[in-house]
Task: inverse folding
């Protein structure tokens, strides 16, 4: 029924090749950048090793961000995507060239703009191939976005149309929009239950159970879904609208069963019983005839599953509605951009492009897939499109695994199952930074390779540690103390121990111990504690203010637990300083380690936990 073979380099065990349904006889072969795990080139080869098609990546030499993806059939460039980035590794442009775009607008480019929170605010499209000198604007493809401080859309505009404005409630849901006017309802678990077109129902695990058109007519279907214990969707059933009955038919027009490897879909099976032509086969069981087979390789993570399969789907073998006649099967190769969005499907027989897609940043298709003259005869049949995710075209949602993405709204249709661990806004998609991020399965954004840390930012912040604290003749380092200073400010500095405390085991003090100190530096990543400001945009005053706020918070917690005599064992200075650095955009600087010991502090390790803040 299904057979896939993986090959590994005998010299180092590295993943090297895959053979499976839909691929040419020589399979798909990977080549890597020298002295790196980055993929340099993917080749689709025949049984003699000749290259039928290839996908080549280029990278920045120091940041490892992808600067170009080129997809070729033989020597013809099917599609090429070239990227530019700013100093924060935000993607600022993409240039699209190749024969895949000849039937639409030809070679063209997108320019991206961002706000101070790194959210996408504009995606403007132009003719030409030079981002520094763009050509004529392709106005109808332009997108403009505006957000509130927690990431909810306030407005969205496409082309010259009036902007859509959004109403937001206290839990970051959209109750309504204007232009067009549309209302939305949610259940108590935060799942979307109604919009302008559909009614949605969810099970007790917050998984989508059904999609029902509100005003059904000819061609509409009612969708029903089932899932397994791992939250994977294993069945999709479609019941057509019967105009004569004025109700939904009880005979499904589609009953698809799904078979997986992890989250990667391997098989689509027909769950209907059609063998006797009367819908009640010899044994009354589903035929489970194969509809399509899929073969997967390495995704954007460089592994088989690390990025949820995004960019890793290599081929499809379609039974072409005749599962018992393999000679007329259709076989296609998937070609991608740098974000793992499906760009084209190339017919393995002759290289013809039987499906072509161009996506806006949040996943809406800029070409109507039903327009076969522009997109190809297989474009509407293929289900894997934006971010290599399965599209339920009937509802317009993409299935990611744990959640569904509404590309038109640019957000998830249900709350994040991991709650605030995936971000403060439980509905926002990849922190509204879609040009440079993907989401593997509906939980956490998967970032592209990060840029190197910036040069050391000297905010005058130092960490001090007392590694030696001799107590009653015991060896050094039993307790010690750690504290932070910044100019005239600081946290946790020990005052001088009274003479009668020195060498007293009860107070664990030792005069004239040695002090080890090191500098820290501000990083690019994350955001300031309890403030909507990214580390990349924080200055030294933001960092110091953060340290003061966090120290006060810790003091309040300490005094309360001390009063109740309930402080946890790990509630001490070293835990605080590590958490404070993380929450205030700081990281220990190995480049600026001060390798000197100065006898300037006194040890009162257990008597100054979070109490002393000096402004």
Result:
């Amino acid at each position: 029924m299904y057979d896939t073979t993986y090959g590994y380099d005998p010299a180092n065990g590295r993943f090297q090749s895959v053979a499976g349904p839909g691929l040419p006889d020589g399979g798909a072969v990977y080549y890597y950048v020298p002295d790196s795990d980055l993929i340099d080139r993917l080749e689709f080869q025949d049984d003699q090793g000749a290259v039928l098609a290839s996908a080549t990546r280029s990278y920045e030499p120091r940041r490892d961000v992808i600067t170009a993806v080129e997809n070729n059939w033989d020597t013809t460039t099917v599609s090429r995507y070239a990227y530019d980035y700013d100093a924060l590794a935000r993607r600022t442009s993409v240039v699209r060239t190749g024969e895949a775009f000849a039937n639409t607008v030809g070679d063209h480019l997108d320019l991206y703009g961002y706000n101070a929170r790194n959210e996408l605010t504009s995606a403007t499209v132009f003719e030409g191939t030079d981002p520094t000198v763009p050509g004529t604007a392709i106005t109808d493809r332009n997108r403009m976005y505006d957000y509130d401080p927690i990431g909810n859309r306030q407005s969205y505009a496409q082309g010259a149309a009036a902007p859509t404005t959004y109403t937001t409630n206290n839990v970051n849901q959209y109750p309504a929009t204007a232009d067009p006017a549309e209302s939305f309802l949610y259940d108590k678990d935060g799942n979307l239950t109604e919009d302008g077109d559909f009614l949605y129902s969810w099970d007790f695990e917050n998984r989508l159970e059904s999609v029902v058109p509100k005003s059904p007519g000819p061609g509409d279907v009612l969708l029903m879904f089932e899932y397994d214990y791992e939250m994977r969707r294993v069945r999709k059933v479609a019941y057509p609208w019967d105009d004569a009955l004025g109700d939904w038919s009880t005979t499904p027009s589609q009953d698809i069963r799904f078979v997986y490897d992890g989250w990667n879909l391997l098989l689509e099976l027909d769950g209907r019983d059609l063998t006797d032509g009367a819908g009640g086969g010899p044994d009354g069981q589903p035929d489970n005839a194969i509809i399509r087979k899929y073969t997967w390789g390495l995704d954007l993570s460089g592994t088989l599953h690390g990025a949820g399969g995004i960019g890793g789907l290599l081929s499809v073998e379609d039974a072409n509605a005749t599962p018992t006649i393999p000679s007329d099967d259709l076989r296609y190769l998937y070609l991608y951009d740098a974000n793992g969005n499906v760009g084209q499907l190339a017919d393995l027989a002759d290289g013809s492009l039987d499906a072509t897609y161009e996506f806006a940043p949040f996943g809406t298709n800029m070409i109507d897939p039903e327009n076969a003259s522009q997109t190809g005869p297989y474009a509407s049949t293929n289900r894997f499109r934006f971010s290599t995710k399965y599209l339920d075209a009937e509802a317009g949602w993409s299935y990611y695994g744990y959640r569904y993405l509404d590309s038109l709204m640019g957000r998830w249709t249900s709350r994040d199952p991991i709650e605030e661990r995936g971000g403060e806004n439980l509905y926002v998609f990849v922190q509204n930074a879609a040009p440079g991020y993907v989401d593997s399965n509906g939980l956490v954004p998967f970032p592209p390779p990060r840029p190197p840390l910036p040069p050391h930012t000297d905010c005058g912040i130092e960490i001090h540690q007392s590694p030696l604290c001799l107590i009653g003749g015991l060896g050094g380092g039993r307790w010690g103390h750690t504290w932070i200073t910044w100019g005239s400010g600081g946290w946790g500095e020990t005052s001088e121990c009274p003479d009668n405390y020195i060498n007293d085991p009860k107070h664990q003090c030792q005069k004239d111990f040695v002090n080890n100190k090191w500098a820290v530096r501000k990083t690019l990543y994350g955001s300031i504690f309890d403030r909507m400001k990214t580390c990349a945009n924080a200055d030294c005053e933001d960092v110091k203010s953060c340290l003061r706020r966090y120290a006060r918070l810790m003091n309040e917690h300490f005094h309360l637990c001390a009063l109740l005599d309930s402080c946890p064992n790990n509630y001490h200075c070293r835990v605080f300083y590590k958490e404070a650095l993380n929450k205030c955009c700081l990281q220990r600087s190995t480049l600026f380690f001060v390798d000197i010991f100065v006898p300037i502090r006194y040890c009162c390790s257990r008597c100054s936990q979070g109490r002393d803040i000096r402004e």
